[in-house]
Design brief:
208 residues; alpha+beta; Thiol Ester Dehydrase, Chain A; two-stranded antiparallel sheet; 3 helices; 8 strands; 26% helix; binds octanoyl-coenzyme A; lipid metabolism; hydrolase; HotDog_dom_sf; cell membrane; fatty acid metabolism
Amino acid sequence: MSAADGVREHYNLWLGRRQPPGTEDPDFTRLADAVRRLQDQFTASRPPPALAAHSADTIEDLVAALAGYQVGEPDQVAGRQFAAVGRGQTFVPPVEIDTFDGDSVTARVSFGRFYLGSNGAVHGGAISLLFDDLLGQVANAPGKPRSRTASLSVDYRRVIPLETELTVTAHTSRVEGRKVFVSGALRSDRHLLAEAEGLFVRLLADQQ
Ligand SMILES: CCCCCCCC(=O)SCCNC(=O)CCNC(=O)[C@H](O)C(C)(C)COP(=O)(O)OP(=O)(O)OC[C@H]1O[C@@H](n2cnc3c(N)ncnc32)[C@H](O)[C@@H]1OP(=O)(O)O
């Protein structure tokens, strides 16, 4: 399967499950996209004081409006909007899944200005976050017991450019008892940029 087949919803891997029918929320998806763009614009902008104050007023009004609709984790929408890039989880870099076969995944990602470290390079923590999330999804793919990250090692091979479409892949390399080892790589069209090795430990009943 590929994204070109028009079955993109099949690759919504979070917890390895499709979004329950009837729970799509296009307005929330739009909101999540707006939050991402706000993060990028905020990071990149140097507004005059009046605009900074006006922006703060506007955002504070929005925070107050949303405060009336707080829900617990089971009812949370953010991170569960599978039609949205990055499933509406605006902390994790915006990943678009292309292929997934149960044990391996290929995806694309482009880091906006929000993820700048310094001197033009993507923040190293954002790369670790990308790998933790994607490798974690592979470890928690459909039919597999729930696991958590015990260890994550990242090798930064080259400076990772902002605002450039990159390919990220992950696959289960081996399983030893409760231990699931997942490998990942981030590439540009010319270079290997970073690699990761993750150890995900399957949870015991009292750890769920
Ligand atoms: C769908 C999801 C997508 C998002 C994915 C995001 C994933 C995450 O970020 S999860 C959040 C971050 N991680 C956590 O909060 C986990 C915190 N840690 C824990 O809860 C525990 O340490 C836990 C559950 C991982 C392991 O604890 P426990 O069940 O007691 O395992 P334990 O018996 O010590 O170890 C089991 C095996 O793993 C090995 N192991 C455990 N930790 C490590 C480690 N850090 N390094 C190497 N090996 C380790 C042990 O040596 C042991 O190996 P063996 O069976 O060969 O002797």
